[in-house]
Amino acid sequence: MLYFAYGSNLHHFQMSRRCKDSIFLKKINLKDFRLTFRSKYRAADIEPRKNSFVPGGLYEISKGDEKKLDIYEDYPNLYKKYYFLHHGERVMTYTMVKKTSFRFPTERYLNVVKRGYKDCRLDQKFLKQALLDK
What we know:
single chain, 134 residues, alpha+beta, Hypothetical upf0131 protein ytfp, five-stranded mixed sheet, 4 helices, 5 strands, 29% helix
């Protein structure tokens, strides 16, 4: 199955440890969404925003990997699954259930996301914008 990462799962080493079968395919953009950070965990989330997009990484994952991600993402309590089509193929990602107000991420978490942006060759300006665009 195809999985879209936009937060800490962009980090290739972390993702390979968490999901043994995962294969990073390429970077893609999720249209009409924006990146934000929220909840008591100060974690990444996406929310609808017209004429905007969220850069991320497209992975191929196994059913076993999906189960591990479900646990990590505290599905269905903290995150729910969101599906979209990318070039006719169904892609799964997670989005937070409760849309709490913006919470600046911890330095440790933010560094993992920054490393992921480098790993996937994403433009850091989108991450910086999300941190300013409360």
